[in-house]
# Entry
Amino acid sequence: MRPKITVIGAGYVGSTIAHFLASRELGDIVLLDIAEGIPQGKALDLYEASPVEGFDLKIKGTNSYANTANSDIVVITAGMPRKPGMSRDELVAINTKIVKDVSENIKKYSPKAIVIVVTNPLDAMVYAVWKVTGFVPNKVIGMAGVLDSARMRSFIAEELGVSVEDVTAFVMGGHGDTMIPVTRYANVGGIPLEDLLPKEKIDAIVARTQNGGAEIVNLLKTGSAYFAPAASVVAMVEAILKDKKRVMPVAAYLKGEYGVKGLFIGVPAVLGANGVERVLEVKLNDGERAAFAKTVESVKQLVRATGL
Ligand code: APR
# Structure
């Protein structure tokens, strides 16, 4: 039997996730949204692409959680984007409400699912999902690090004129201004990045990575990124469904690793059939430790704003 993957929120990110999932034939897809007709229309349109693209899957669009029952993986993209003039805390309040409703339904209909959270502000929303579902923490995972790292990797590849495939780099911490692109561990075909680029160039890549989401928002003006976020989610889904034990930076629940307890934050982790199977603790130098302490503080503030 094919795995069942539900995507909640059929907006830009949700529908692009469905597209990538389908083209990789990772499982049957349910696309759910509160907007009537939208998930149904997008699912039907995607299904009609299947004879041309050659993927054999069931793709269902729905407004009813009954159709999501017994999903193996649920991806949450439902939420409101930040509007001009809206404070971060206001956005937290609105999206916490949405994510709470979604989480209660996941708990009811797919109690065994692994949940991947995409809704922003990410670090607070993944915490909210964990609180409301009461799922074991390794089965609730936030998608941010794969995306932020992909941005960093693409900027490095572009700067050096090399294949993106050969660039390894990861970003730790919260999915916001305080994220930490860990340049010391970045490498190109095994060669340390710091041996290949001068400090000013590396600093520019770090700054562009930290500003990566805003760069897209400023260009699009009417929304935020969706291709790279969707591709990042699908890589995580694949790692889980194929039990690949991939090492990916994700927002994972910390039980004392990095000196943090009871918080979801971006760290390198092993992703397999059980979700986050292990958090990998890399050695941080003094500067990185200070940056990590700062990002933990900012995530704590966001979590507090959820009131959970
Ligand atoms: N239940 C289900 N769907 C909902 C709910 C809800 N309670 N509330 C809103 N939605 C749906 C909307 O109807 C909309 O179709 O969520 C969808 C969000 O889609 P977009 O507005 O296109 O937003 P998108 O660009 O996909 O981003 C979604 O991902 O990257 C993050 O910051 C981004 O939090 C945002 C999320």
